[in-house]
Amino acid sequence: METGGSTTPAAGGEQGVPLRIRRTASFRRWYAAQRDAGNVLLGASPVWTTAAGNESGAVFFWALHVRMRVGAEDRVKDNEVVISRPDVSVVALYRPGPSLDETVVVLVREFRSPASTSDGYVHELPGGSSPGAPDPLVQAVDEVAEETGLRVDPRRFRAHGSRQVAATVSAHHAYLFSVEITDGELAWLRARLDRPLGVEADSERTWVEIATYGEIRAARLVDWATLGMLAEALKPR
Predict the structure, then answer these.
(1) Looking at residues 77-105, what average pLDDT do you find?
(2) Which of 35, 134, 138, 222 lies deepest, with the highest CB count within 10 Å?
(3) What's the gap between Cα 12 and its chain centre?
(4) pTM (2 decimals)?
(5) How far is CA 89 from CA 40, 134, 144, 175, 214, in A?
(6) Which one, of 70, 73, 59, lies nearest residue 28 by Cα?
(7) What is the CATH number of domain 88-234?
(8) Rounded distance, CA 36 to CA 39, Å?
C-alpha cells in the first residue's frame, strides 16, 4: 500500500493525481465521464493504492479525495473519496424452470473479508477481473472455468452490457453475461459441490452453490447488486 506517488505535468486538478493512478483504465473512464458531464476536477489527493497480485506493480485498487465543480449545479463538492478497481466480468449460469422462481442458478460461495453475512461468506455469480484483461468476454469465460470448473464455449455467452455495481462507493463497472446451461452441465456441477476451486495463488477459494431464483430471493442469499444482475439476465427475451 502507498499514500502517494510520482506525477508528471498535468492540467488543473489532475496535477494531484499520481501517474500510476492516471494510467489505469478505471481512472481514465471515470475522469472522461466527469468531463463529458460538464464537471471539473479542481483538485485531488491520493488516499491509498493497492498493487495487483503480480510482479507488474500495476495499481489494482485506488482511492482519491477529490474536489469537484458540479457543472449542472454551479457548486463545488469536496467531501468525497472516489474509489475504483479494474472492471469485472460477471456470469449468470442458469437452467430455465417452469417459472422464473423455479429457474436454477449457479452461484459461488467465497470467504471475503468485507462480508457482513451470517456465515461470513459472499454468495455471488461467478466473476472477477484482472488488470489488463484482454476482453470482458474472455475474462468471463476464464472466471467461470476458475470458479466453477466448467469451461463454456464463448459463443454461448449472451452479453447484457455494463453498469456500475455500487455507484456511491466505487467507479468500476461490471460486464454482465448469461449462459443457459444444459441438464448435463447442471448435473456435472451438482456432483462437484464439495470441491474447492479458484486460484490459490490469489488466495481465492470458491465453492459452487446451486439454488432456484425463488430460493435466492427468499433466503436473502445474495446482495442487492447480484439480485439486480439476475433480474436482468433472467428476464424474458
Answers:
(1) 96
(2) 222
(3) 30
(4) 0.88
(5) 30, 12, 10, 5, 24
(6) 59
(7) 3.90.79.10
(8) 7
